[in-house]
Amino acid sequence: MTSITVEIDDELLEKVAAHAAARGTTPDGLLRDYLEQLAKGPTDADADLEAMRRRIRELRAQSPLEVGPVTWTRESLYER
User: Fold this and answer.
1) pLDDT (tens digit per residue) in 6-50
2) CA torsion 19→13→26→43, rounded to 10°?
3) What letter does residue 24 receive in the DSSP assignment?
4) Cα torsion angle, 21, 23, 24, 25, sign
5) What is each CA distance from 69 to 25, 40, 55, 72, 73, in whole angstroms?
6) Whole-number pLDDT of residue 53
7) Which residue spans within 1-80 are E strands per DSSP?
8) Which of 24, 43, 54, 77 has its CA 20 to 30 A from that of 69?
């Protein structure tokens, strides 16, 4: 097995380590899993997701909805 070195910010590493620990692995394990998935290429789920994104773009383009000017303020939304 070959080792690689990656330089990342300390704060990012802390967040990734916490994320990894919650999943019972390490930052190295997360990276290895990600690279393995990337090497396998697109999955059916990836194709489904892209099809959904494409359909949403189509529907948005066909929508007659027009957003008018903003006539409210953030503060007015929270007035009681």
Assistant:
1) 999 999 999 999 999 999 999 999 999 999 988 988 788 888 999
2) 70
3) T
4) negative
5) 49, 47, 27, 9, 12
6) 96
7) none
8) 54
pTM (global) more than 0.90 = no
Helix (H), strand (E) counts: the chain: 4, 0
**C-alpha pair distances (Å), 46 with each of 2, 54, 55, 58, 78:** 28, 12, 14, 18, 40
Domain ranges of the chain: 1-62
Q: How far apart are alpha carbons 56 and 16 in whole angstroms?
A: 32
pLDDT value, residue 68: 87
* 53 within 8 A of 39, measured Cβ to Cβ: no
